[in-house]
Structure formats: structure tokens, C-alpha cells
Amino acid sequence: MSGKIDARLAEIGVEIPVAAMPAANYVPYVVSGNMVFVSGQVPFVNGELQYQGKVGADFDTDTAIKCARVCALNIVAQVKAACDGDLDRVVKCVKLGGFVNCIDGYGEQPKVINGASDLMVEIFGDKGRHARFAVGTNALPMNVAVEIDAVFEIA
């Protein structure tokens, strides 16, 4: 199905990947009423895990921002699956939760997670503006640099 959001994606040159299957005993998203809760998404690109390591040691902030954008693309892929392929059903990106695998003393987590936040606004416009948290941690699954979860309202 082609709609306004698909046209917007083509206009900005963004391709949404196929929604990834979960890596453990959970589901990639849950639809409850008009809300979609997306499980934490990591930087898979074409089925391959990317960006493994710590921000501030293995990656700089600019590279971590790119990683967050990949996580956001994977979030949108899950939302698309939850909406049976129709992203025009998105009413609002309600919240993003961002985790950054970083060294002690690193303080640019909000800047890193902007890589995801900016993409939501690029794709959905004002519907992409959301509440958010961005925190640092000493480790993430599979040693990825960033993991992000999300909550969306859909029609």
C-alpha cells in the first residue's frame, strides 16, 4: 500500500528494512488497543549486526548517531509490520527509550539518540515528535553500541 508516508520516504530517500525477527524469547512488538509497543531494536543491517563496541572507545559520537538511526529504521520496520504495511496509520510516535553502551564519563547520550529522534521527525513530521529518555550503560546485548525501544499510537 502506498500512502503519504511512503511518498515521504521516497522523497527523502529512506528505505525501510524488513522487520527483524526477535533474537530471544520475546515478540518484536505488541499491539494493545491503539498503541504499539516496539521491543528494543539494535543495529541490524540486512540481517547483519553492525556497530558492536563502546561509544567513547570504539566509536565516536557521530558514528553512534548513525547507529541510532539504524535502530530507528528497525523500529519503523516493526511499526510498519504492526500496521499491516500502512504507515499512514501512525497517529503519533509517543516515546523513544535510548540506551548507549559507553565508557564511564561519556555524556553525549542525548546527542546520540537524536539520530533516532531526528529520523522520526523526518519521516512523520509533527507526528514524529515524542517524549524520550537517553541513558548510558556499561553493556548492551551482543555488545551493540545502541539499543532503542518505542511506543506509537496508531489508528
Automatic annotation (TrEMBL):
Gene3D superfamilies: RutC-like (3.30.1330.40). InterPro entries: Endoribo_LPSP/chorism_mut-like, RutC-like_sf. CDD domains: YjgF_YER057c_UK114_like_1. It holds the Pfam family YjgF_endoribonc. Residues 7-144 form the Endoribonuclease L-PSP/chorismate mutase-like domain. PANTHER family: ENDORIBONUCLEASE L-PSP_CHORISMATE MUTASE-LIKE DOMAIN-CONTAINING PROTEIN, ENDORIBONUCLEASE-RELATED. This is RidA family protein.
